[in-house]
Structure formats: structure tokens, C-alpha cells
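Lab intake sheet, docking and co-folding queue.

SAMPLE TYPE: protein with bound small molecule
LIGAND NAME: 2-acetamido-2-deoxy-beta-D-glucopyranose
LIGAND FORMAT: SMILES
REQUESTED OUTPUT: full 3D complex as C-alpha cells
PRIORITY: normal
SUBMITTED BY: R.K., bench team

The fields below were copied directly from the construct record.
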Amino acid sequence: MANSCASKTFTALSDLHPNMANLKIIGIVIGKTDVKGFPDRKNIGSERYTFSFTIRDSPAHFVNATSWGHEDYIRSLSDSFRVGECVVIENPLIQRKEIEREEKFSPATPSNYKLLLSENHSMVKVCSSYEVDAKLLSLIHLPVKESRDYYSLGDIVANGHSLDGKIINVLAAVRSVGEPKYFTTSDRRKGQRCEIKLYDETEPSFTMTCWDNESILLAQRWMPQETVIFASDVRINFDKFRNCMTATVISKTIITTNPDTPEANILMNFVRENKETKVVADEIDTYLKESISLNTIVDVYTVEQLKAKALRNERKLDPSYGILYAYISTLNIDHETMKVVRNRCSSCGYVLNEASNVCTTCNKGSSGFRSVFPSFHMLVDLTDHTGTLHSCSLTGSVAEETLGCTVNEFLVMTDEQKTALKWQFLLERSKIYVKFGLSHRARGGLRISILSCKLADPAEASRNLSGQGHA
Ligand SMILES: *[C@@H]1O[C@H](CO)[C@@H](O)[C@H](O)[C@H]1NC(C)=O
Ligand SMILES: *[C@@H]1O[C@H](CO)[C@@H](O)[C@H](O)[C@H]1NC(C)=O
Ligand SMILES: *[C@@H]1O[C@H](CO)[C@@H](O)[C@H](O)[C@H]1NC(C)=O
Ligand SMILES: CC(=O)N[C@H]1CO[C@H](CO)[C@@H](O)[C@@H]1O
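RESULT FIELD (auto-filled):
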């Protein structure tokens, strides 16, 4: 038993059938769920614990295994291995799976069976990677679905509402991995959440959310602008608040990190060639406008309250939204030196490199020149009786609406016309909808994007200000 992981006596998953005894199988763990506790029906007052994982021993064969037992046993077993490690299982119970019911919640497996592991009868041993065959280890880079069976992010966005609630496969690169957030629900259950931003050739930023510790752990190992993932069976939803499509990792989902497929290799090349572009994700967000529906934003803040709220926000880097009754106190649109219009790439929306005017994001070389369009890109100061917010970004169509002119009209204005335009609303009390949050990159650590800015109805403004908005 010195090296039980290298033994030649394993039963292949393809050969499983019920009633096999003294079985020994080996596989690489490709999926895993969090530990859950259930009231024990046979033993009122106590709880039984369980978690599931999926193992694979060849390209075509993988099965779902569920382990049951006491809390300590299940927690320590679950903690003993991660996705990507190999395990040997001895004496599992082989059960026919009830396809309809189970595949709703668990990964669709090609096998007709599932494994049941009990604390008393089965054994799970974790193998170190040098003990096992390289062939087995390489299975971790093989998606569980056909390599061409996926949606690009652009397809998902283009399909929009028709994909709401659908379970599909996605191939995409990782742009950023958010901090995991831990919270307690109103019925005192613990929860966690982590937001991943994905991208590909067709879409600069797309959110995927994880709600379980195992997928969050997996995501923490991904390298932004390097890792490519094939996520099989993620749920697509239309996010009403952000007015965009998003993906959610569910219990059926199996995520293959850096898949070894032709399609993934093409995407990895794209990622490599475009890596030097240090695009600020927030910038893309405002460009894409996330078209937050403004009437969902109702909290009124003074400048001082907004700063305090940003610092107090528990989900530190997640943005908050609010309304300010304030005025624009700095607006440099009539200075030669201040660049307020920048070119964006028509294909991907990124701001172009100033010097070369070439989009390094979707251009594979200077030959593939894409068309560009000018877009406002301004930083303004907002002031009220409690203070000033510096360098708030006012961009794109929001800037056009605010200034009351298109970017092309603006570009042909004389400096005098620009100065006149500026004084039309500089220091006029406005009702300003903002998105705000802490950011390491922003000046003063606070990043503020203007979503809408219109002259305020003076009566409404004074009523709201005297009501003091939000404490
Ligand atoms: C395995 O199946 C069970 C239900 O039988 C399910 O709860 C579990 O999520 C599945 N395993 C994995 C790794 O998803
Ligand atoms: C497992 O073994 C323990 C101790 O040997 C025993 O108390 C328990 O009832 C057994 N559980 C099952 C499900 O057989
Ligand atoms: C997830 O991890 C957090 C932090 O480590 C922990 O408090 C929580 O109990 C875990 N949840 C589950 C379901 O394992
Ligand atoms: C954004 C907001 O709270 N606006 C309020 C300002 O005051 C008027 C009248 O009191 C309310 O109707 C608005 O809802």
C-alpha cells in the first residue's frame, strides 16, 4: 500500500455497474460543491452532512460522487482535496442515477451511475500529482462539453432576453476576479459572493457571479488577463438593475481552467496579444453605460454624506448609486490643454492609444485598422454646501446630454462658443445621478461617474436638501 495511487488495479468508470464489491477507482476531481447540513430524519435533533464532487478518469467518462457523514468527517474530507487533484475511492456504493431529477442540480454525467460514499464504509485518499499518470492529470484541461459547444459573450449579449434563465456553456477570458464578500442573510444563513469579469474578442466586460465557496476558491486561482475558462452549464440571466446579461455559477456548473482546445487556444492568443493594454475596467463600464435605470436610484446625498457612505460601504469595491443636488464647479472644456474628447474603437469601445490612434485591444496588428469614433471624456468637480467631489467622470452620451450638444458639434465650436456653453450651467444647481465607490486608481481613492446631470427644479432641490437625504 506504499503507493496506492499508482496501482494498476483500478476499475475504470466506464466499467461501473451496480453490485460491484471491493471496488477501487481513481479520478481527477473536476467539480465540487460546498458542504451542507441536513436534519437527520432517523435521528431527530441531529444533522447529517454531505458534499458532492465529480471525478473523471478518461475524456469520455466522469461520475458524480456524494459523500455523507458526521460534520467533522465531512468537513475534513471536503477540506482534504480541491478541484484539480486526484483521489482514489475505495468501496463506494454504486447507484443508478435518476437522470431527470438529478441532472437538474448536478453536472450532467455520461455515466448511468453515481457513487455514494459513506463515512463508515468508503475511503477516499488524495494523491499527490507526482504519484499519478500524466494522462489523468491532463484531463483537467478538457472541457466536459464539446469544445465548439459554447456561446461567445457577444452572442449572449446579442441574444439578450431570449437567453434569460437558460443554461449554456461559455468560453471566455478572465478580466478580473473580485474580492469574495461574506454576508449573513436575514434568516441568519451565511452566504458568500464573488464577481468575475470575463471578456473575449466580442465583448470587453461581462459579469459572472459565484455564490459558493468552492467556485470562489477556484476563481481565486485565476490570473486576470491570462486565464481562459470553459464554463459548462452556467445560468444566464438578465440583470434588471444593471440592464445587462450576466452569468451565474450553479451546482450543475463545471469550470475547466485553461482548456486545451483549438477554440480556447485562439482566445488565449487574443489575450496574450492584447495584454499590454491596461484598460481600466471601470472605464469600460461607464462606456457601456450599464444603462442603470435612473428611476431605481432614489437615495439623496450631500457631498459629505456621499463620501461617508463610500467609506462605510461593506462591499468595498462594489459601486453605490445616489442623487446629488449640487453644481458643477470645474469644467475645463475651453482649455486647449485639456483633452475632453478621445477616440474610441468602434468595435470594442475602448479608448485608443493617444499617440498611435490604434486600438490595441482588438487589433491583432497595425494592419487590421478599425474605425474609431470621438467620445467625450471629461473630469469635472461637483460642489454643494458641504464640500466638493473632485474628478468625477462625465463621458460619452451622458456628457452629450449634459452639454446639450453632440461631440461632433462640440469639435467644430470656437473657444468662445465653448466658454459660452460652459457658463450655461456652471454653478447652476443640478440634479446629478452618480455611481460611486472606492477605487485604488482614482484620485482621492473615490471614483465617481455621472449617470445623468440636469438642471434641478429649485423647489424640489430645496425640499430634498432640507429633508437632509441620507444620513
Ligand atoms: C452530485 O449529485 C448530487 C445529487 O445527487 C448533487 O447534489 C451534487 O451537486 C452533485 N455533484 C456535483 C459535483 O455537483
Ligand atoms: C458508523 O459507525 C459508527 C461508529 O462505528 C456508528 O455509531 C454509526 O451508527 C455508523 N453509521 C452508520 C450509518 O452505519
Ligand atoms: C464559506 O467560507 C466562509 C469563510 O471561510 C465560511 O464562513 C462559510 O461557512 C463557508 N460556507 C460554506 C457553505 O462552506
Ligand atoms: C430623489 C428624491 O428623493 N426626490 C424627491 C425630492 O422631493 C420631492 C418632493 O418632496 C419628491 O417627490 C422627490 O421624490
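REVIEWER NOTE: DSSP finds twelve helices and 22 strands in the chain.
SIGN-OFF: pending second check by T.M.
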